[in-house]
Amino acid sequence: MKKKIILTIIVFILLIVNVYLLSNYVFARFRNKAVLEKYDIALAKELSNSNFVINKIMLYSSASGINRNSNFQQTHWVLDILQYTDIAIYFNKPKELNSFNTAEALSISNVNLQVASDKFTPALYYLDANNFGTGSILSEYKIKDNLEFTVLNFDNKDNSIMYNTPVFFSDLSNPVTLKFTNLLYKNYSIENTEKLIFDGNLLSKTPLKEKDLKASLNFNITISNFEKEKYSTNVSLEIPLQNSKESIFDGKVLETKNINLPLLKIQE
């Protein structure tokens, strides 16, 4: 009899413990759910109220070559061959300008480049917007750690400002233009038996396949407004190599991404 009483007491205690643990578990789940919902609502509100939003990114992929053979009557081309992608990042332009939605400063930072082989040499440069879709490179504006743009307080309607230096207009009227390059070969020899086309067609003269050209990059864009508030986001891109109509080996690939990527306010 005594053993039954003890056993009953033990079962009762275990039942109470289980009920206590279960109630704590259920309460914790509801509490965490409430916290997450509150966080999601706050984040959604912050996203919808962002003063700076990227709405489109254009990507143009091709290739180019630099002739290293100085012999006039050359039997072979000797080329440095690189693939490249020109990038244009567009922002929503405000309907009415104020000190909160106009840019006072803009910078690119935390650049990370990924390519298929450690034998290749990737790089990122500022791009003169007038040279978008060409092999032109502004070597003096290679982005190593970060790049500060000169922000001008007008829209350049008369085209009086050149784009050969990193420039951005405070009303967000021009895109941020960059150039990704990936040096594939140095002093690559191609027999001079036919006319070469200096675009993606060059790649068909090499043993490279599409998988060898896969690359990606990401970086931060940070904008400060005239209220001294900072907004930032990370831009992550896969280098386009083909679409339903064309391949980089055919010459070029053009891709347009219509997106809605807000820059989040940095709390300082």
Distance between the termini: 70 Å
Helix fraction, binned, reads 10-25%
Based on DSSP secondary structure assignment, what is the total number of beta strands?
12
* Average pLDDT: 86
Put simply, the count of helices is: 1
- Strand fraction equals 35-45%
| Biggest sheet features | 5 strands, antiparallel
Give the strand line-up of the largest sheet: 4-8-2-1-11
Report Rg. 28 Å
> Given the C-alpha coordinates, what overall shape results?
flat
Order of helices and strands: HEEEEEEEEEEEE
Query: Structural class of the helices, strands and pairings?
Result: alpha+beta
Secondary structure topology:
Layout: H1 2-48, E1 53-67, E2 76-91, E3 103-115, E4 121-126, E5 146-148, E6 150-152, E7 167-169, E8 176-191, E9 215-225, E10 230-238, E11 253-262, E12 264-265
Parallel strand pairs: 6-7
Antiparallel strand pairs: 1-2, 1-11, 2-8, 3-5, 3-9, 4-8, 9-10, 10-12
What features would you describe in this structure?
The structure is a single chain. By secondary structure, the protein is of the alpha+beta class. The protein has one helix spanning about 1-50; strands at about 55-65, 75-90, 105-115, 120-125, 145-150, 150, 165-170, 175-190, 215-225, 230-240, 255-260, 265. Strands 4-8-2-1-11 form a five-stranded antiparallel sheet, with no helix packed on it. A five-stranded antiparallel sheet has the order 5-3-9-10-12, with no helix packed on it.
